[in-house]
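Tokens as discussed.
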């Protein structure tokens, strides 16, 4: 017999691209069954200035409208490169307008990541990134404006096409490789940030925390953490300090 569960909270996400371009594997059950995750996509052509501006101006608001029609209690703009390309001032203004217009909580992966790093008191961090140097500069600028110093940042030159074409195995392997490279370059960092969602870096989080003895944050896990921190969802053990609510 199928049991129908009425969601008590609906978490809406505006994603960079949809499943037609980037099929997602079954996610780990980080949230309970009565919290429903729904998503729609701005279908960004690339993380360039033109690509992000076109996607936000043409498709962000229709995406939010669709999520609200489905009963979303909150809206999260996913993709750290999206917010970084907008710049923190403009990205925050977009979230403020979303909250004002729809009367819901508006958030982003970028701002949730900043909040997570602040939660740990991390002021000087290492960033494991696979993005191109121009994108990395924007990420550094965003974090700097939030009062977080980036001691080092890695790169393998990826833009959106390369990031979304990785297999799960390639992504996980790269998360470990670049996470360890970043920590070799900045061993005194307060925290390690695994930047990006496409490389499925969740599995690396608890292992890298054990290896280096500092918190490890990856922007996709900051979205469920927001609900954990707000008391909406319970902590999740086994996937690192942030999700455990520590």
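Sequence:
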């Amino acid at each position: 017999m199928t049991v129908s569960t009425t969601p008590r909270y609906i978490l809406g996400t505006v994603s960079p691209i949809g499943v037609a371009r980037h099929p997602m594997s079954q996610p780990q059950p980080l949230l309970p069954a009565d919290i429903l995750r729904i998503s729609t996509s701005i279908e960004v052509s690339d993380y360039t200035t033109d690509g992000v501006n076109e996607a936000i101006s043409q498709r962000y608001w229709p995406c939010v409208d669709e999520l609200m029609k489905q009963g979303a209690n909150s809206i999260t703009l996913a993709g750290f490169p999206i917010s970084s390309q907008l710049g923190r001032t403009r990205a925050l203004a977009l979230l403020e307008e979303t909250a004002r217009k729809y009367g819901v909580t508006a958030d982003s992966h970028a701002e949730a990541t900043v909040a997570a790093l602040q939660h740990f008191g991390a002021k000087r961090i290492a960033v494991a990134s696979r993005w191109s140097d121009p994108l990395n500069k924007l990420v550094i600028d965003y974090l700097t404006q939030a009062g977080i110093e980036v001691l080092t940042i890695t790169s393998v030159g990826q833009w959106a096409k390369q990031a979304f074409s990785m297999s799960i195995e390639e992504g996980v392997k790269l998360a470990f490789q670049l996470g360890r490279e970043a920590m070799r370059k900045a061993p005194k960092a307060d925290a390690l940030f695994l930047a990006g969602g496409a490389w499925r870096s969740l599995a690396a989080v608890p292992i890298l925390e054990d290896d280096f003895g500092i918190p490890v944050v990856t922007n996709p896990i900051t979205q469920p953490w927001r609900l954990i921190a707000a008391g909406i969802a319970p902590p999740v053990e086994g996937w690192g300090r942030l999700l455990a609510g520590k």
